[in-house]
Amino acid sequence: MSAAEDQGRTHGKIRLIEENCTSCMICARECPAWCIHIDSHTEVDPNAPAQLTGRGMRERTHNVLDRFVIDWSLCMYCGICVEECPFDALEWNGAHVPPADDLAALAHGIDELR
Length: 114
Hints:
The protein is of the alpha+beta class.
């Protein structure tokens, strides 16, 4: 295996592919270190037809990601989040997390995880 092929499999930093994330919370629930924190809200999907429920018509909604944070001071680099994501929104980046002066700097949000 070449270095380029191995780059995506190196257990370094985890990258968020934001457009694939549905805020399903599976990665956060499956993480044994509880180092992933997600906030989202729901919005009406204007392109989806309303559906009939027992209480009448209901507009369809979808989750919108507001915040996705990995706290690298807690992460064990086990890769369970990468393996469990059914939408391929997480992948190994290959780069290592840089050192930080304090613990707060090790909590990377959406911008740092892109």
